[in-house]
Amino acid sequence: MASLQDQLRGLVYSTEHGDTCPDCRQPIADCRCAEAAEEDRLASLDGIVRLRRETKGRKGKGVTLVEGVPLKADELKVLAKELKKRCGTGGALKDGVIEIQGDQREVLKGELEKRGYKVKLAGG
Ligand SMILES: [Zn+2]
């Protein structure tokens, strides 16, 4: 199965060329590929949110990655926004992983636990 990213790229591509999904050949309005990929991603999670610091190839303190949050993409986007605000820093959301600039593991751990998630500090 194509990755979510490939599928999203496919959707963008096909939107420019006639509104059909290249994977399921359905009109974009009926296509559930991205949704199905989301469900696959959620099904593969173990319910534990992992915080990982990544400094390789990053400037300064690097970034803190929040992996495995069991939320759908639109809810993840809201959470990412709230976490960025809480840390007072920038960030991004890529393939279900929230990226927060700087070493924010302690703040994020507290914030996520407050929301009822099981949180583990991983690596770094
Ligand atoms: Zn499709």
UniProtKB/TrEMBL annotation:
Which SUPFAM superfamilies does its entry note?
eIF1-like
Task: Indicate the secretion signal residues.
Answer: none
Q: So which domain of life are we looking at?
A: Bacteria
Q: Which GO terms describe its molecular function?
A: mRNA binding; translation initiation factor activity
The answer on whether this UniProt entry bears the keyword rRNA-binding reads: no
Cite the Pfam families for this sequence: SUI1
Q: Name one GO biological process term.
A: formation of translation preinitiation complex
Ranges of residues in domain SUI1: 53-116
Write the record's keywords in alphabetical order, separated by commas. Answer: Initiation factor, Protein biosynthesis, Translation regulation
Family affiliation: Belongs to the SUI1 family.
Entry's NCBIfam families? PRK06824.1 (NF005297), SUI1_rel (TIGR01158)
* This protein's name: Translation initiation factor 1
